[in-house]
């Protein structure tokens, strides 16, 4: 499919549950979920969208650093995370904020984007690895973590999120190969949003699809509409079941699998990034303004809302309540993040167990200057 083209629904090999108008497609298997779970998926997407709007605004006001917007990609992040168990581990790139919303970790996470290391430590408590900016560098670690779960006979899987651009990195291929050979319980969640900054999907790979790459490593690849939260849920759920240790006995991680069914899966979420790559990017430099419109027409939140209305699960009041709730959750997270008192010396804390002499010198110099001039002089307090 031409993901940057006019018709996002043209490809028939993409798994979907909801049509563009939110009505389930003929013969679609709507996941058998409770009303509460359907509503939670909707609410979490609404909260993710609100978070995204506020985060961009905070950056523009100088209250936050560079930020990677996720509008358009809520369906895949939220739908897939609802398909996991709480003890399953999430490892992600930097745009799948919806996973954090589902895990209810916004307040803990936001400080990261404001430059505080505490943001990454806290989310680990919720089984989320720190986000990763070095493209694809987290994939071998995610496979290693899933291998460890298998080795210890823990019934846990790892959902590892990354972009289409990440598939061109060596780390992607090393991780995929290892996962295939050792049958690790890994879900490779590739977010094909059409772009890697200014590089379009057509320049990223000559493969027909990203999902097709899985066959080179001996396991399944599947394409799913990432702007359809229910399809994203269903595909991730099936992949997670395939990854789980069905007989409760790990293979000890020492021997390659002795045949099908293989356990890892590569899931290609076909979707689109509505906004800029980051707040430091200007997409008008490389893509037409109206390229986004066909994708907005299949917006994940609109489709889910239409589905919930159609099936009598939500009405105007319920929609207003979800939006009010999102405003509150995000406002509380921002208040909490802005209340964090940064310790200027903490920036030296996390790279080395023993600080090298030159960094020790810089740390001492900083502390002496803060002592002499006060924190206000460095704009560290507010
Ligand atoms: C190893 C490495 N090389 C280059 C970069 C610069 N960089 C940051 S984001 C990005 C594009 C990644 O695209 P994709 O994986 O499709 O993710 P998306 O941003 O579209 O979500 C690049 C090349 C980086 N962060 N790390
Ligand atoms: Mg991309």
UniProtKB/TrEMBL annotation:
A Pfam family reported for this protein in Swiss-Prot or TrEMBL: E1_dh
Family matches, as SUPFAM superfamilies: Thiamin diphosphate-binding fold (THDP-binding)
InterPro entries: Alpha-ketoacid_DH_E1_comp, DH_E1, THDP-binding
Keyword Cytoplasm attached: no
Keywords: Oxidoreductase
One function term, GO molecular function aspect: oxidoreductase activity
Region described as Disordered: 242-264
Record CDD domains: TPP_E1_PDC_ADC_BCADC (cd02000)
UniProt keyword Oxidoreductase present: yes
Domain Dehydrogenase E1 component: 43-340
One GO biological process term: organic acid metabolic process
Name of this protein: Thiamine pyrophosphate-dependent enzyme
Organism: Halorubrum glutamatedens
Taxonomic placement: Archaea, Methanobacteriati, Methanobacteriota, Stenosarchaea group, Halobacteria
